[in-house]
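Slide 14.
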Amino acid sequence: MTSPDTTPALDLLRSKGYVIFDRLLSEELVDRVCAELEPWFRQTPHCQGDFYGWATTRLGSVLLKSPSSHGLVLHPLLLSLMNQVLGPHCDWYQLNLSQAVRLHPGQRQQVPHRDEEMWHCQKNGIEYLVNVMWALSEFTEENGATLLWPRSHYQRLSRELDSAGAAIGAMPRGSALVYLGSVTHCAGANRSPHPRTGLIFSYSLGWLKPYENPFLSYPPPVAKGFPPALRDLIGYRIHRPNLGGYEGQDPSVLFETSSHTLPAIDAIPDSIARELKAFYQA
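Slide 15: predicted structure.
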């Protein structure tokens, strides 16, 4: 399969900090995802806290609750962007978060923030995270579409930002808003009489601790039923050199055995493997 040409989108993402793809999904697929998530939205209490929002509902473990969402996580256009933004800085990138979000009428504007703040270190110009917000309902200024401050990833973080300077991530149902973890953004206020529903899949460097604990959300008996590409994204894959293994092996071995007496096997990049050989040859 030919990789999609993401050059224009990548240029926008890097320069402005975000890009919108209108109507990437069919209405039928959006309907299926919504139908699978709706019972969970009805059962889940509102969030508690000024960041999550008191009039907001958030669902985790989305891949378990909505099988139809798997295709969104693995969308080739978006993975092509992740390959170029995150790929150069890790052995492989991971799914950082799966979260369905519903802003109910009356939810106030969220505090401006950057999602990379969860990792307290200097980023040195490297992107640690890229978010994808899928619109499961129409996103409008009135119902709380995401607010983004263009080019804010080139500036110091500030909470004191005028919303008049923000771009409104308005988009039709089935669209995707892609934005960098380093860009300042927030959910808008829902001043409409209807809820606004979105689905976030975010991707981060594979050597970071992810926002959502994948092995609690998707333990081996659950993940075993996922396609291999999805298993890799949620962390059932060792990150070279030797990071995140199980008994010294690739954690995908858990789909075959739960033994605690396995031989540890090197998982190192080719460059380090050559250094080791040269050391012993010397």
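Speaker note: The chain has one domain: 7-233.
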